[in-house]
Amino acid sequence: MTASTGEVAQRSRRLVAIQTGIGLIVALGFGFYDDPHAAISAFLGAFGSMISTLILGSGVEKASEEAVENPGKSMGMLYLGAVKRFLFVIVFFIAGIKLAELDPLALAVGFALAQLSFVFGIKERAKN
Predict the structure, then answer these.
(1) Which of 22, 87, 17, 4 is nearest to 54 (CA)?
(2) pLDDT computed for residue 38 by the predictor
(3) Cβ count within 10 A of residue 17
(4) pLDDT tens across 60-95, in order?
(5) How many beta carbons lie within 10 A of that of residue 82, not counting itself?
(6) Structural domain total, the chain
(7) What pTM does this model have?
(8) 84: domain range?
């Protein structure tokens, strides 16, 4: 059974809300133990994760709509979405570290911990 378009959008919004909370907690931690620059870097890492989630949600939503008429094209759209997310993350980290001079550790930790929301989301969905 596939998720409806509305369910996909709702899950994406919920994941972004969780990632925002995680990002704020990580940023506060870095701000408390390190400095404001690290805190900003950590939150921006989480923000990158949020953007990645929105890209994923948008791609799944479009693929779900296409699956009704053309399942093969739908699968291709999912693969293309994965490539888009991968490229976004690479460009995001390069721009964050090289251009914006963000703290690499804080940026990576903020991103990684916000990505854990997927683990929680998958675990919750498996219970249902």
Answers:
(1) 17
(2) 97
(3) 12
(4) 888 888 888 888 888 999 999 999 999 999 999 999
(5) 13
(6) 1
(7) 0.88
(8) 5-127
